[in-house]
Structures are given as structure tokens and as C-alpha cells.
Specification:
heterotrimer; A mainly alpha (about 475); B alpha+beta (about 725); C mainly alpha (about 325); B: about 725 residues; alpha+beta; Dipeptide-binding Protein, domain 1; Dipeptide-binding Protein, domain 3; 3 domains; eight-stranded mixed beta sheet; five-stranded antiparallel beta sheet; 25 strands; globular; C: about 325 residues; mainly alpha; MetI-like fold; 2 domains; about 0% strand
């Protein structure tokens, strides 16, 4: 028995998915919108990043389906009672990685705690030793066999990954062969040599890489803490994976918040000019003048006041943390719409003087129609470029905000919180490096992929760069 | 031909540049001063102690300063009549500027003198006559500067006089004068000053006779003065007598206390009761001074061993030896073991032993810790996470340093702080609070489940001992061993207290009507709320840990995290449920802990320090009795009963008493921790030569990675340059042919 | 020109009023005067009486925006907003809630901020331009490709990593620089070097890449092709013509940040213990010192507006075709 829980950000994330799907369907039949995308997927770099981004997105989406499980029935119970803990589909998939909590720090693949503890031996003597972990490598009778065990598990993982990718390769071959009406073997050869228009070989290699990683983690993480554990013994791998959703939410929802402001106000200012322009310019100059950190700090504090005054509205901790995340997106959106707004205003100013707009005006087409039909489609590429470029910046900004103390809720797992905590760990002797490294790697991969992808998108959409 | 010229020239310039750089490096390496030293080279051999402060002190005015980070400074500058003996334990008061420890005599309501052993109920007033030593002089200060005619030079400054003045040091002349009893009286009057908001005014007005009325008098006088002059000027407290505090003669003054209040002597060892010369207040209250940040809050005036010469709270604060210091000497006796530990090596030497103390602003923990390891701070006094792993606990539970640190000669000092960190239940809460059996069992179950041993080992790395009751070790009334354990939470294992198993807690929970964390009637899972402020990275781990503890009982703990103000608000309104709180003792007396649970100190009702809003009639009655008793078996008995009531009612989970770990280098001497005394700086000694030697040994710059990096860059460039040259040559050839 | 500058300066006034109102609103929504008093009076033994006195002394006992009890113009002027905001326009920041004079503190803390920000700005500009030029010079070669990849990689790393790693490697392992601290005067260079180097490296990714496109755009233009066809050597072409023209978008783009250099960097300063204005702001937010926050926001806005003005002027200077109107 489960009770679905829809958090605010969940709803918005899925709204965003729907918007993207609708846009994709719309763009399918419009050649001028399809062409640049076709160019994007022809770039090997873009395809590889797209595969990585998809992996992140899938993880994030799985982590956005939340529910509460029912508690076992007791005598005298009138209705079903649900646990106060909100889980996601990802949590259930990660299973043991989430629940296998040690006492404190342990290094990646360790079988013993990282710190000494007083243990009373059979003879009643107290000794200081590194105790065995409760879960990490607990199946090993002798920790010395760890290497062989890891190798064996890795071999299985590699086999799984290779076979999965091979199956995908065959599938792609069959599909392409059928569509192009060519013999299967020739098609497979073409795929393997990388002679297709869309770089399927690169995509498959990227998939292989990710499959390998996933298989390795799946095989190893049940028996070991692949990336170690943190101060209270939580698995660092689990934290890093859970942080994906936080990063994606901040990167995407912020733009969702900002877009209506930026597009609407930017076009209004550029098209109507006069006092409308003055007011909008005044608005964004004023907002721009205020140091962003202050604005964010004040907004976050404000929301805390609201939550403190209305505790009955937030049944679970997940809801409180979620609202803070949403608020952060909102306020980041408010501080970041000005740049795009200015850009769109300038572009609209140029566009409204063009012949076809002038002609439409002369024909008596209503202003709203001109804005939506004639101007908006010609600004979309700017919006798209801004969105993909802003994404990586926002993911990075989260870490800095956490440092300043106005980031996501401290109980929310995020890379920013991990890095922030790692600052203290770096000073430990011997150093605890794995949290920092894990957060760095996960974040870096996402941002790098996003940056590479945004490059390709910009090349394809920016008419000035098209050569 | 230009590109070739450029290419030919380039390597030459580059190699010249590299040579220059190498020369510079060699030059720098020759100079003895380590590259990473944050201090100027000329300070290397000087008798200077280096320390840090993380937050700028808000008040250095002795009437206002209360925080521990302020006392670091005020304790060295101001001298109250009494102090704690540096070495002796248990803590013992001794005269500082006073000639002897004052002994009160008692009066009844009619003003008749009573015998010393009269019952507390008969005593209407306690009178303290305090005599100070003659010949003590203030530090040199502009406020005392006088010309030949004896007129104060800087008491009638005009705007033009202040034109070139930016800091206190810009006043050319300084003066001094002898400390007199009137200065002490003046300061006690200042506690009631309408513009100062002394934090202890509320408390002291209950005890010092006439202080409450005095505050009203001053308020009126202040209003009158303000109606005459727009600016807030000097309010001369000498013009307004205070009935309970009087100057007897040049060296003697009298304080009249309502009722019997033996703890008053402890207050006399705090800067609140230090002397303050009227000249200083007159001087600082002139117009134009506060605009230049020249105020008593930033430039204290005292008789102590040090004076604050540089106060730039944005960067650095420097204290220097007070040339007029009255020649106090290092104590000649200590407790057992002090002589062996070398703590009496300086016995009889005139204090202070260090010339200058430089405090630098450090906002972050990591740099502070790293600088300590590099030898740029002499002691790492703050209990911070940074030295978690510096310490290991030996097989016998003895604490020692890790080999790496021991190799550096770093030493360790530990002391259990006279403070407690506890988890409180709001007794007004319908679920966890109240006197019902159900709530009490729930609280007791939680007390067992909160595994403070684990908390200490994870978050404090063993720096603490689990509390068995509200009293900290070293305080009268604290009991050691089996007699001292909390029988509701611990069993006695023969060697030490053993926390009861979680099953026991689950049993209590079931008895309370929450089997497996579910309400026995509705089946609803029990959800409790933890109210807290923190938002830092370490708080996240701590909150996770606390949730883990409650999960052992299948209780859902929801964290309600807000900012500091909102948290205060909740506490004041009594809407919090479970919270974490701490208390740092003002003085070593059980009253200073037990008053935290006294009903009339309830936070919601009386805005007091009883954050749990606990009220138990028997406890309150015993508290009123215990308060005025002399230490002895009878008092112990009363305290035992009070502690037993608390353990049974469990308004707190008695958390732990943090241990203070001080790490210091082996050139730092006389480092005995005294948690009560705040003027320990004058006893410290350093060996600057040894420090300089070690600093140089530890901080040899490592340059080769830079060279490797440069080489790699050149290598990366090389093929491109070659390709370009070939390309250019081809072009030239093509043009020629 | 002068008329334009005056007009822009006048235009700044409503913006500053708006900024002031927003700051004021944001701060007082979360921070009632009672909260501030409690924060400043400390934790132990604070009485409601002391809080009232604290507020009265600092003028926080008045209504926020409208005083119904007062008469005439006092209804608007005898309020916290009027009292605390109007004097800002004369750059009179008053004293902080902790009792220190803000103007004096700003004057003192401005220099360390500038000592970090200015070298970082200048060295950064030099490094980024040379780097971009190098890539443009070797365009299409492996050097260019790996340079661009390097840029993207550098861009993908969080700024905090640069600081944490830089401090760890250079100060802790190699003993080359002090971990943190500051010293006024010329001795400051030892403390400034590491933050500057880290700041420059952290900015290399984005700036280097953008400047590279500026150069490539310029190289692609007709006059460059003509010059090359005429046999002008590549290096001279790059240094004489391309550099000069590509500097126009670069310089006009960076002018806006010049005045804000005074404000310092929030994170760099608190990591390196530099007593500048950036750490001043952060501390004020953490200590909830409204007076300082308001002063810093006001200062930041003024400097930002000044930057915009400078940008406009610089456009006219580099391109005579644009006239200010």
C-alpha cells in the first residue's frame, strides 16, 4: 500500500517535461525548427553529452516520483496510517545503498571504519581498533580477499554492460536497416565504422560507458560503500545520486520561472517602447542593482518565517525542504531574468522595424497576434540558447549559495551541501577526501555535458555563427 | 622579416625571464623568513604571542561585555577586585586588586548587626566592605593627560581639535593616575546607566540595595539633560549617590546586598565589577568621538597587565604590556602535579611574561588550523572540528595526540568545561510536556535512545563526557562514580555507566502508549518536532544523526529549522517542542546550573533562562533553600534530592559536558586551562627562538612543481610554434621563388 | 556629453529610491526591530525592558513607513524608513547597529577589497586576452582545440573548488603563500598573490572562450583578408589590426564592472581572511546588521549605475558614430 506524494517541485518538473514534449511535437513538422536540431545531433560531442544528460535526467525523474508507504496495521486502527518518510522510486531502486548506514566515516571500498573506536574484548579489556563495518564488505570472511571479490564482481558487471550495449547495437542496426531498406550486415558494419550521418557509434560508446558504470555500481554498491561513507555513516554514492535531482531542479525550474518574465517583459519593452519601455527598464535596472546574495538571503529568510508561522501546512520534512528548494528557484529566477529580458528587448527593437512586421501592422493585424505570430518565433532561438547556457551556471551557483548559508535546506542532499561539508573534512588529519571528490565528479560531469551540449545548440541556432 | 625577429627574440626574453625568476627564488630562499609567514620578518624573534579571533567583539565596555569572545580582551585589561587562583583546583577565589577576600556581615530588617551563623531567613542585608591595595596605576591613556596646571588636556575638545584624530593613538599626550575605590563604585553605578543596557542589571537590581531606584533617577536625569542639549553628553554619575554602594575612603568601598547572596563574591571576579575612571567616560562622551569609533566599547581603560593599543576589529587587535602594571607575581604554589608539569618554573617572576599579543581576524576554521600546524598560531584554543583527528584515545581511555602531531612537539591540555549541552523538552507541549505519566515515560524513553556516547565520539571526537544530571564536574554537588549515575538512563557496569539498551526504551515507549512508535488507540505514527537554528554543513550531519536516534524507537522526528530570531521567538512563546540548548556557567556554584530549571525562571512566563518551562513545586522549594546554603553535607543532600527529581521528571535529556581541548606548541608554556579565570594571558610564556627555528623547519617552500608546470606549458606550446615556423618559412620560400 | 551625464545621474535617483525601498521591505519583513535588538544584546539575560531601550535609542521604535500619530509632514518623516534611508543619499551611512561608524569602516575596508580586485581584474584581462589571442593565432590547430576544451573544463568547475584546491596545494603542501591574512601597504602582495592567481584561473574558462570568438570574428572580416592577401605578416596583422579592433567589445564589456571592484568578492575574501567590503557584507547579513546591509546595497547600486554610465560613455569614445542622446 502506498500513498503517492506530489511535491511542488515534482509537479513543476513534470510540467516541464510536458512542455518539452509538446514543443518537440510542434517542432516535428516545422522544417525551420527541425533543421538546427538535426545539426545538433550530427555533432559527436553533442550526442555524447546528450547521452550523459539523459542518464542524469532519467535519474532525476525517477527521483521525482514520491510516495509514502503504509505502516503495518495495529489493533484498534481505524484508517490506514502512512509512514512520515517520503520515498522516491529512485530510493527503492537504490535499496541497500540507502539503508546500509554505518556508524561514521569509512573510505571507499573500505571494510573497516576510518576512525578508531573503543571496543571491549572478550577478556573485558578495552582496546582502540578500527572496527569492521556493519555492511561494507561484511560478506567477506577475510578482508584480505577484497581485491579478488571486487575483481569478480567487476567482471560480471563488465559482461552485463557489454551484452546490454551489444543488444542495443543490434537493435539500432535492425531499426536503421529497416528504415533505410538496407541489408542488416551492411548497416551494422556502417554503424561500427561510424559512417552514419548521426554519430550512432559515439552514442553507443557513451551508452556503453554509462552501462558499464551503472553495472559496476549496481554490482559493487550492494556489498561495498563504493564512494565511502560520511560523518554519520551515510553512503556518499547515495548522496551524490540523490543530489542529481536537486541540481537539475535548480537548473531547470529556475529558467521555467524566469522565462515568462523575461520573454513577456522583454518583448513588451521592445515592441511598445515609450513609457512601457521606461517602466520595464526601470524595473530591471533596479533589480539588477541589488546584490543578488542579499536578495536571495532575504527571500530565504522570509520563507522560513512563513514556515515557522504555519507549521500545520507541512506534514513532512520532505515538504518543508521541497518548499525551500522551490523558493530558491523562484528567487534565483527573479534575479536572473534581467539579462535575457535586456537581450530580447534589443532584438525586438530590431525586429519590429523589419518589413514583414511593418507589413503586418499596415494590414491591421492585432498587436497580440504580431507579438505571438511574428516576433516570438524569431526570438525563440535566443531564448533556447540562454536556457541551455544558464543551466550550468545555475547548477554551479547552488554550491556557492550553500556556502553563504542561503542555499537549499541543510537536510536536502545536494552537491553544494556536500562540498560545504567537505570543507571541514579537508582539514581532518588524515584527510577525508571522498565526499568532495564524489560531489566534484558528479557535478563536473553534469556541467561539462551541459556546457558541451549548449555549445552545439548555440552553434546550430545562432545565425551569426552559422558559416 | 618581422615574425622571425620576433621568434628569435622570444626565446631570449623567455630565458632571461626564467633566469630572473630563478634568481628571485634563490634570493627569497636565502632570506630566512618563510614565504608563507603571515607576519612581517622583523617580528620573528620577538616576544609576541599570536592568536586569532573569529568574530569582532561587540562590546569591550565592562558594563556590557558578557560573551566569551569579549572576555578574552576585557579579562586582561580590567581588574575586578577578585580573581580565581591560576593553578589551584577546585576553583578558589583570591584577591586581585583587593587587599583581602571580603567577608560580609549581616544586618536584620532594622539594621542591627547579626551573627555570622544566623539563619538565612533573618538576614535582610549582607554588607561587603572591600579594601583595595594602594599604589595601583592605570595604563597610560589620553583621558588622564593633564597640563602643568593640572587641567585635563583632552576633556574640552572642539571639532577642530579632532581633525587629525582617527584612532586613540593619535592623541599625543597620555597620563595615568592611581586606582581608587571611587572607580569601583562608579562602575557599579554604570550598571544602571540608562544608555548602557548592562546584561546583569536585571539580576543585580534584585540584590544591590537601591540599584533599581537608582536606574530611575538616572533615567530622569538623562532625559533632563537631553532636553537641555541635543547631543547625548556626559552624565556624571558622581553627582548621583547610590544608597547601596558607597565610598568609605580612598581605598575602601561598601556594597549592601539584599538578603544573603554568597554567590556575590563570584561576581566580584568578573569585569562587570572592574573599576572605571570617570575621566574615561568624560573623555569618550565628547562630540565627534563616536564618529571616529573612539568609544569605551573599542578602547578600554584599565589597570590590568595588558592594554589594547591597536583595535581594528576588521583585521587585527593588539594588546601590549601595560608599563604601569602593579607587579603581580607568578603564583608560588599550585595543586599536586603542577611542579612536575613545569607549571611552577616561573614561580615568583613578575607578570606578564609576554610583551605583545596579536589577535588576527580568522573567519574560517581551516586556515586557522593550517596556520596553527605551520606554527603561526601558538595555541589552537577554540574547540573546532579541525582537530578532530589530531587526538586519539588510548586503551585506558587516556587521550593523546596522533603521532604526526606529537612529532611536531604539539601538546594537549584537556579540561571538562563547566558547561552542559542538553536536549530540552518544552514542558508546556501537550505531547512531550506536562506532568502526566505518559509524557514522562516518553521523555525517559527518548533519554535512553539518544546515544550521547556516539554523539561525542562522532561529532566531538571524544571531547566530552555524557551528563548524568544538570551539574558539571568540578561544581559542588556533582557526584562521581556509581553514586552519580542517572538510574533512569544508565546501569552501572562495574567500571562505568552503561547506557540502558534500546529495548528498555522501547518498553517504556510501549508503556507510554506508543508501541513501535504508534499511538495505541489510533495507530497514528508518533511524530515529534525538533526545533533548531543551524544551517551550516555540520548541522546537517548532526540533524541526520538525531533523526537516526529517534528512528531507533520508530519515532518520526521532523526537523523544524529556522533562523536564530524565529527560534528565539518560538522559545519565548513556548511553541517549540524539542530543542537543543546549552549553558556555560558564570561561576562554579550549583545554583548557576539548577536555576535553569527553577519554575520562576520559566521562559514563557517570566522570560527567564528556564527554557524547558519546567515547574515542580518540590524542586522550587528545595532550590530556594539550597541557594543560600554554604557548601557542606546538608547542601549536598538537598542537591541530591533535586537532581533525583530532575532525573525522574526528565525535562532535559542531560546531553554532555564538553571537554575543552587546547593544543599548543612546545614553545608555549604555562598553558594550564582555567575555565573560570578569564585573565590567564599574563601567566603564559613563549620561547620565540625555538618558535622561529621550528617555523623555518616546517615551512620550507617547495618550488619544483612550479618548474614542472612551466616546463609542461612550454612543451605543449612547442609543436605549435614549430609548425608555425615551418609554415612561415614555406611562405617566405614561396614568395622568394 | 555633459548634459547626457547629468541626465543619467538624475535618472539614477528613482532607481536608488527603488533599491532602497526593496531592501527596506525585504529586511524588515524578516527582521523586526525586536529581533535586531535581541541579536545585538546577546544571548544571556536579556530583558524586554533592555530591548525597548535599545530600539528607542536607535530610532527603531517608530512606525515603518507611515506615522499616524504625528502631525503634518512628520507623518512621513518620523518613520524608520525616512530616518534610516534619506541620509544615505548624502553618503552619510550613520553608525551600524553594533555602534561603529559605517562610513569609517567602509573607507578602511575598501582598500583591501581593491587590492585583490584590481590586480585580479588587470592581470585577468591581460591573461585572457593573450590566451584568446594565442588560440586565435593557432586557430584550427590542436592547440586551439585543446584550449577550447580546457576552457569548457575550467568553466565546469565550481568556484569553490578552485579556492579549496588552491589553498590546499599552494599553502598547505608547497608552503608558498600564507594560508590567509592581510597586511596593509606593500607587504600585502604576499597575501594577494594567491587569491589573484586563483581568481584569474577561475575566470579563464568563460572569458578566454568569449574573447576567442571576438578575435575569430575580427579575423574573419574582409579587411583582414585583404591585408593578408597583400602579404602583411600574420603576427603584425594580429597585433596591429585584429587586437585593436577586438579590444573594443572586450573593453566596453568590462567597463561596467570597474566601479564594482570596490565591493570586493564575497567568497574569496572570507576564505582568505581579507578584511574587505565583501566579507563586511557577508558578516552583516549573518549578524543581521540592517544598517550595514542597507549601506552596502546602496553603495553597490550607485557603483553599478556608475558602471552603466561609464559603459555608455566608452561606447561613444571607441565608436564616433554612436552619439549619446
Amino acid at each position: 500500500m502506498i500513498q503517492p506524494v506530489i511535491l511542488w517541485t515534482d509537479a513543476l518538473v513534470f510540467l516541464l517535461v510536458v512542455v518539452v514534449l509538446v514543443f518537440a511535437l510542434y517542432a516535428r513538422n516545422k522544417e525551420h525548427l527541425r533543421a538546427p536540431w538535426r545539426q545538433v545531433v550530427r555533432s559527436r560531442m553533442a550526442v555524447a553529452s546528450l547521452v550523459v544528460l539523459s542518464a542524469y535526467t532519467v535519474t532525476g525523474l525517477l527521483d521525482s516520483i514520491h510516495f509514502r508507504t503504509a505502516l503495518p496495521e495495529t489493533a484498534g486502527q481505524r484508517e490506514i496510517q502512512y509512514s512520515g518518510e517520503v520515498l522516491s522510486v529512485l530510493d527503492t531502486l537504490l535499496g541497500p545503498v540507502r539503508t546500509q548506514v554505518e556508524k561514521s566515516y569509512s573510505a571507499p571500498f573500505a571494510t573497516h571504519l576510518y576512525t578508531r573506536e573503543s571496543v571491549t574484548t572478550g577478556e573485558g579489556e578495552t582496546v582502540r581498533i578500527f572496527p569492521r563495518l556493519q555492511f561494507g564488505g561484511a560478506h567477506l570472511a577475510d578482508p584480505a580477499h577484497k581485491g579478488a571479490d571486487i575483481a569478480a564482481r567487476s567482471a560480471i558487471a563488465a559482461a552485463q554492460a557489454v551484452s546490454a550495449t551489444a543488444a542495443l547495437y543490434l537493435l539500432a542496426g535492425v531499426m536503421l536497416a529497416r528504415r533505410r531498406r538496407r541489408p542488416l550486415f551492411a548497416m551494422l558494419g556502417q554503424l561500427a565504422r561510424g559512417e552514419t550521418e548521426i554519430p550512432w557509434r559515439t552514442a553507443l560508446l557513451a551508452v556503453l560507458l554509462i552501462a558499464l558504470l551503472v553495472a559496476l555500481l549496481a554490482n559493487l554498491s550492494a556489498a561495498y560503500h563504493v564512494l565511502g561513507t560520511d560523518k554519520v555513516g551515510q553512503d556518499v554514492l547515495y548522496q551524490s545520486i540523490k543530489s542529481i535531482r536537486t541540481g537539475l531542479v535548480i537548473g531547470t525550474l529556475t529558467t521555467l520561472v524566469m522565462l515568462p518574465f523575461a520573454v513577456f517583459l522583454g518583448m513588451m519593452a521592445g515592441y511598445f517602447r515609450g513609457w512601457v519601455d521606461d517602466v520595464i527598464q526601470y524595473l530591471y535596472t533596479t533589480l539588477n542593482s541589488i546584490p543578488g546574495v542579499l536578495l536571495i538571503a532575504a527571500a530565504v529568510l522570509m520563507m522560513q518565517v512563513y514556515m515557522a508561522n504555519h507549521p500545520e501546512l507541512f506534514e513532512t520534512m520532505a515538504e518543508r525542504a521541497d518548499l525551500r528548494l522551490l523558493f530558491l528557484c523562484l528567487i534565483l529566477g527573479v534575479t536572473s531574468w534581467t539579462g535575457l529580458c535586456r537581450l530580447l528587448r534589443g532584438e525586438t527593437l530590431k525586429l519590429r522595424e523589419l518589413d514583414y512586421v511593418q507589413a503586418a501592422t499596415a494590414f491591421g493585424v492585432s498587436r497580440a497576434t504580431i507579438l505571438v505570430r511574428h516576433l516570438l518565433p524569431n526570438l525563440l532561438h535566443l531564448v533556447l540558447i540562454a536556457v541551455v547556457i544558464d543551466f550550468s551556471g545555475l547548477v554551479l551557483a547552488e554550491a556557492v549559495l550553500s556556502y553563504v548559508g542561503v542555499g537549499v535546506d541543510p537536510t536536502t542532499l545536494s552537491w553544494g551541501n556536500m562540498i560545504n561539508g567537505a570543507r571541514l573534512e579537508m582539514a581532518r588529519e588524515p584527510m577525508v577526501w571522498w565526499s568532495l571528490l564524489a560531489a566534484f565528479t558528479f557535478m563536473f560531469t553534469l556541467v561539462l555535458a551541459a556546457n558541451l551540449f549548449s555549445d552545439a545548440v548555440r552553434d546550430a541556432f545562432d545565425p551569426r555563427l552559422r558559416r | 622579416m618581422e615574425p622571425q625577429q620576433l621568434l628569435i627574440r622570444a626565446p631570449v626574453t623567455r630565458s632571461a625571464w626564467i633566469a630572473g625568476m630563478l634568481a628571485a627564488i634563490a634570493l627569497a630562499a636565502c632570506s630566512e623568513h618563510p614565504w608563507n609567514s603571515p607576519y612581517p620578518a622583523q617580528q620573528a624573534d620577538q616576544n609576541i604571542l599570536y592568536s586569532s579571533f573569529s568574530e569582532r567583539p561587540k562590546h569591550l565596555d565592562p558594563a556590557q561585555s558578557y560573551s566569551s569572545n569579549e572576555v578574552v580582551f576585557t579579562g586582561q585589561i580590567y581588574e575586578p577586585p577578585l580573581q580565581y587562583h591560576f593553578l589551584k583546583r577546585p576553583y578558589q577565589l583570591e584577591p586581585l586588586t583587593a587587599a583581602r577576600l571580603p567577608a560580609p556581615y549581616y544586618l536584620d530588617q532594622a539594621g542591627r548587626r547579626l551573627a555570622a551563623d544566623s539563619p538565612a531567613a533573618d538576614i535582610a542585608f549582607s554588607v561587603y566592605d572591600i579594601e583595595i591595595k594602594p599604589g595601583i596605576r592605570y595604563q597610560p591613556h589620553a583621558a588622564f593627560a593633564r597640563n602643568a596646571q593640572g587641567r585635563y588636556l583632552y576633556h574640552e575638545l572642539s571639532g577642530a581639535d579632532l581633525d587629525r584624530i582617527n584612532t586613540l593613538a593619535d592623541f599625543a599626550e597620555t597620563g595615568s593616575r592611581e586606582l581608587v575605590a571611587a572607580d569601583y563604585v562608579y562602575q557599579i553605578k554604570r550598571l544602571a546607566h540608562p544608555r548602557l543596557h548592562s546584561p546583569i542589571f536585571g539580576l543585580m537590581s534584585e540584590y544591590i540595595d537601591g540599584l533599581q531606584e537608582y536606574a530611575e533617577t538616572l533615567e530622569q536625569a538623562d532625559r533632563q539633560q537631553q532636553s537641555r542639549q541635543a547631543q547625548q553628553l556626559f552624565l556624571d554619575l558622581r553627582d548621583y549617590p547610590l544608597s547601596g554602594v558607597q565610598v568609605l575612603d580612598r581605598y575602601r568601598y561598601r556594597v549592601k546586598i539584599r538578603g544573603k547572596y554568597p554567590q556575590f563574591l563570584y561576581w566580584l571576579a568578573m569585569p562587570f565589577f572592574a573599576p572605571l575612571p570617570w575621566e574615561a567616560e568624560r573623555f569618550y562622551s565628547q562630540p565627534g568621538m563616536s564618529e571616529r569609533n573612539i568609544t569605551l566599547d573599542w578602547y578600554p581603560v584599565g589597570t590590568g597587565p595588558y592594554m589594547l593599543t591597536v583595535n581594528n576589529p576588521n583585521r587585527q587587535m593588539i594588546m601590549q604590556r601595560n608599563p604601569n602594571f602593579h607587579g603581580e607575581r607568578y603564583p608560588r604554589e599550585g595543586e599536586a602535579g603542577d611542579r612536575e608539569a613545569g607549571l611552577l618554573a616561573d614561580a615568583g617572576r613578575p607578570l606578564p611574561l609576554i610583551d605583545t599579543v596579536i589577535y588576527s581576524l580568522e573567519k574560517e576554521n581551516i586556515p586557522t588550523w593550517n596556520k596553527f600546524l605551520q606554527g603561526y598560531y601558538d595555541a589552537s584554543g577554540v574547540s573546532s572540528d579541525s582537530f578532530d583527528q589530531a587526538i586519539q584515545i588510548g586503551s585506558g581511555g587516556d587521550i593523546s595526540l596522533t603521532p604526526e602531531l606529537r612529532e611536531k612537539g604539539i601538546q594537549l591540555n584537556t579540561a571538562v568545561a563547566t558547561s552542559i549541552s542538553y536536549m530540552g523538552f518544552n514542558m508546556l507541549d501537550p505531547v512531550v510536556g506536562g506532568d502526566s505519566e505518559r509524557a514522562r515515560l516518553l521523555r525517559q524513553a527518548i533519554a535512553i535512545a539518544m546515544d550521547y556516547e556516539e554523539l561525542i565520539s562522532i561529532f566531538a571526537n571524544g571531547r566530552g563526557i555524557p551528563a548524568q544530571g544538570p551539574l558539571a564536574p568540578g561544581i559542588f554537588g556533582y557526584r562521581e562514580g556509581q553514586a552519580g549515575i542517572n538510574p533512569y538512563v544508565y546501569n552501572w557496569s562495574g567500571r562505568g555507566p552503561q547506557r540502558k539498551p534500546v529495548e528498555e526504551a522501547r518498553r517504556l515507549l510501549a508503556k507510554a502508549g506508543y508501541p513501535d512508535g504508534r499511538d495505541v488507540e489510533t495507530g497514528k505514527p508518533l511524530a515529534l518536532y525538533f526545533d533548531t537554528t543551524g544551517g551550516g554543513p555540520d548541522d546537517a550531519a548532526r540533524l541526520n544523526w538525531i533523526r537516526k536516534q529517534f528512528a531507533k524507537l520508530d519515532i518520526q522526528l521532523q526537523i523544524r529549522n529556522t533562523d536564530y530570531n524565529r527560534f528565539q521567538d518560538k522559545m519565548l512563546k513556548g511553541t517549540a517542542q524539542i530543542f537543543q540548548w546549552g549553558w556555560n556557567a558564570d561561576y562554579p556554584d550549583p545554583e548557576n546550573f539548577l536555576f535553569l530549571l527553577y519554575g520562576n525562571n520559566g521562559k514563557v512566563e517570566h522570560n527567564g533562562e528556564n527554557a524547558a518551562n519546567y515547574r515542580n513545586a518540590e524542586f522550587d522549594r528545595l532550590f530556594e533553600r539550597m541557594k543560600n546554603m554554604e557548601n557542606g553535607p546538608e547542601r549536598q543532600q538537598v542537591i541530591d534530592r533535586m537532581v533525583e527529581i530532575l532525573r525522574h521528571d526528565a525535562p532535559w535529556v542531560f546531553g554532555f559536558h564538553p571537554k575543552q581541548f587546547v593544543l599548543y606548541h612546545d614553545w608555549y608554556h604555562n598553558a594550564k586551562t582555567n575555565l573560570m579565570a578569564n585573565n590567564g594571558l599574563k601567566y603564559r610564556r613563549i620561547d620565540p627562538q625555538l618558535r622561529e627555528q621550528k617555523r623555518q623547519a616546517w615551512n620550507q617552500p617547495v618550488v619544483w612543481p612550479l618548474g614542472v608546470l612551466g616546463l609542461l606549458l612550454v612543451l605543449a606550446m612547442l609543436p605549435a610554434v614549430i609548425a608555425y615556423r615551418r609554415h612561415e618559412n614555406q611562405r617566405v620560400q614561396a614568395v622568394q621563388s | 556629453m555633459l548634459a547626457y551625464v547629468v541626465r543619467r545621474a538624475l535618472y539614477a535617483i528613482p532607481i536608488l529610491v527603488g533599491v532602497n525601498l526593496i531592501t527596506f521591505f525585504l529586511f524588515f519583513v524578516v527582521n523586526t526591530p525586536d529581533d535586531m535588538a535581541r541579536m545585538h544584546l546577546g544571548m544571556k539575560r536579556v530583558t524586554p525592558d533592555a530591548i525597548e531601550k535599545w530600539k528607542a535609542e536607535r530610532g527603531y521604535d517608530r512606525p515603518l513607513l507611515y506615522n499616524a500619530q504625528a502631525d503634518g509632514s512628520d507623518r512621513l518623516t518620523a518613520t524608520i524608513f525616512f530616518d534610516k534611508s534619506v541620509r544615505l543619499f548624502g553618503f552619510d551611512f550613520g553608525s551600524s547597529d553594533a555602534g561603529r561608524n559605517i562610513g569609517a569602516d567602509i573607507k578602511q575596508r575598501m582598500w583591501p577589497s581593491l587590492a585583490i580586485a584590481l590586480p585580479q581584474f588587470l592581470v585577468g584581462l591581460l591573461v585572457y586576452v593573450s590566451f584568446a589571442m594565442l588560440l586565435a593565432f593557432f586557430r584550427g590547430s590542436y592547440l586551439d582545440v585543446s584550449g577550447v576544451v580546457l576552457c569548457v573544463v575550467l568553466m565546469s568547475i565550481s568556484g569553490l573548488f578552485y579556492i579549496i584546491a588552491g589553498q590546499y596545494v599552494f599553502s598547505k603542501l608547497l608552503h608558498l603563500f600564507p594560508v590567509s591574512g592581510y597586511e596593509p601597504g606593500w607587504l600585502a602582495w604576499r597575501f594577494i598573490l594567491l587569491p589573484v592567481v586563483i581568481g584569474v584561473i577561475a575566470g579563464l574558462g568563460s572569458s578566454g572562450r568569449v574573447y576567442r570568438t571576438f578575435f575569430l570574428e575580427e579575423i574573419g572580416k574582409d579587411y583582414v583578408r585583404t591585408a593578408r592577401a597583400k602579404g602583411v605578416p600574420e603576427t603584425r596583422l594580429l597585433f596591429r589590426h585584429v587586437l585593436k579592433n577586438a579590444m573594443v567589445p572586450i573593453l566596453t564589456g568590462v567597463v561596467v564592472v570597474i566601479p564594482t571592484l570596490f565591493m570586493g568578492s564575497l567568497i574569496m575574501e572570507s576564505f582568505f581572511g581579507i578584511p574587505g567590503l565583501g566579507s563586511y557584507t557577508i558578516e552583516a547579513i549573518q549578524n543581521q546588521d540592517f544598517a550595514i546591509v542597507r549601506a552596502m546595497v546602496f553603495l553597490g547600486s550607485v557603483l553599478y549605475i556608475l558602471g552603466l554610465l561609464l559603459t555608455d560613455i566608452s561606447y561613444t569614445l571607441v565608436d564616433p558614430r554612436i552619439r549619446l542622446s
